[in-house]
Every structure is written in C-alpha cells, then in structure tokens.
Amino acid sequence: MEKQIGKVIHWYDKIGVAVIKLTDTLKKGDNIKIKREKDEFEDTVNSMQLDHADVDSAEKGSEVAIKLSSKAHDGSVVLRVS
Q: Which domains does the chain have, with CATH numbers?
C-alpha cells in the first residue's frame, strides 16, 4: 500500500539530499518511494533534518531534508510504502 506524503522541492546533487515538503507525517525507518513520470525508486529514511537539526519524525507542513540513495528530481512525488 502506498500513500502520498509529500513532494521534492529541492535536490542537492553533490550531497545526495532531497528537501521534501510534507503533506503527512514522516519518521526515521519509514520506507518511501520517490516517483516522477517513469522514474521511481524505493529508499528507507535513515537520517532526517529539520532546520539543520537531526529529528526522528516530522509533521505535515514541515520541510525536511533526507539523504537518498538515488537522484531525485524537483517535483517528484514522495510516497510512504507499507
């Protein structure tokens, strides 16, 4: 089952970090899917920052930075996978 939880609003290519605007909560350990057109990949949230501070979870409306294993593009949809 998949549920949309946000959108990538910025990608930092050199450090492999996506900034995500959340439309639902997100926690460390959550499995997510990043999807844009035909490109998609799954990842696990291992580290997350809110205002440059490490956090274990973030609420709807937050903009969080997470490290990803593959490149994400601005505008990509972020889904929680269960």
A: 2-81 (2.40.30.10)
Cβ-Cβ contacts under 8 Å for 38 (sequence gap 6 or more): none
Complete DSSP assignment for 25-68: -EETT-EEEEEETTEEEEEE---EEETTEE-SEE-TT-EEEEE-
- Rounded Cα distance, 17 and 38, in Å: 21
Residue 8 C-beta-side C-alpha neighbours within 13 Å: 25
**Each residue's pLDDT tens digit, 17-49:** 999 999 999 999 999 999 999 999 999 999 999
Q: Does the predicted TM-score (pTM) go above 0.90? A: yes
Closest by CA to 41, choosing from 24, 64, 18, is 18
